[in-house]
């Protein structure tokens, strides 16, 4: 029995290390929306340390007002057992820069299978969104040029 407990502890520590050192932003919230997981990549992207965010409302503190309702809805769905893939939303950094995140939100369950929180695994897509916007502007400028040339 003691050996099984030691193995469980080892596996839990290994998983925590994996989360902490993953090359993707990973965060967790409890059933009240309070941050209970915040890995090194999220620290790097946002500038907020784990100590600064733990126990605070992710949606109310770190999500812009215009996205709070949709982000909360995604988290509520996960708490109801329905994960969401490829949800885009902005998060603001400590120095007030807007970072675009592509998120997969999954329920975090207890041993009974009940959702007790949400685990979010994301990807910083800020640069990709910037390039998409620049392409759209160039295409629009090109179309305007063609339209005026044909007038």
Please provide a written account of the structure.
By secondary structure, the chain is an alpha+beta fold. It has 6 helices and 5 strands; from the N terminus they run H-E-E-H-H-H-H-E-E-E-H. The protein has helices at 2-21, 40-46, 50-53, 58-62, 65-79, 126-149, and strands at 26-30, 35-38, 84-92, 98-109, 115-124. Strands 2-1-5-4-3 form a 5-stranded antiparallel β-sheet, sandwiched between helices. Strand 3 (84-92) and strand 4 form a beta hairpin. The protein is elongated. The N and C termini lie far apart (84 Å). The model has no long low-confidence stretch (mean pLDDT 88).
Structural class: alpha+beta
What is the N-to-C order of secondary-structure elements (H for helix, E for strand)?
A: HEEHHHHEEEH
- Fraction of residues in β-strands: 25-35%
Low-pLDDT windows of residues: none
Oligomer: single chain
Distance separating the two termini:
84 Å
On the 0 to 100 scale, the average pLDDT is: 88
Number of helices: 6
> How many beta-strand elements?
5
Largest sheet: 5 strands, antiparallel
Helix content: 40-55%
The global form is: elongated
Helices and strands in order:
Layout: H1 2-21, E1 26-30, E2 35-38, H2 40-46, H3 50-53, H4 58-62, H5 65-79, E3 84-92, E4 98-109, E5 115-124, H6 126-149
Antiparallel strand pairs: 1-2, 1-5, 3-4, 4-5
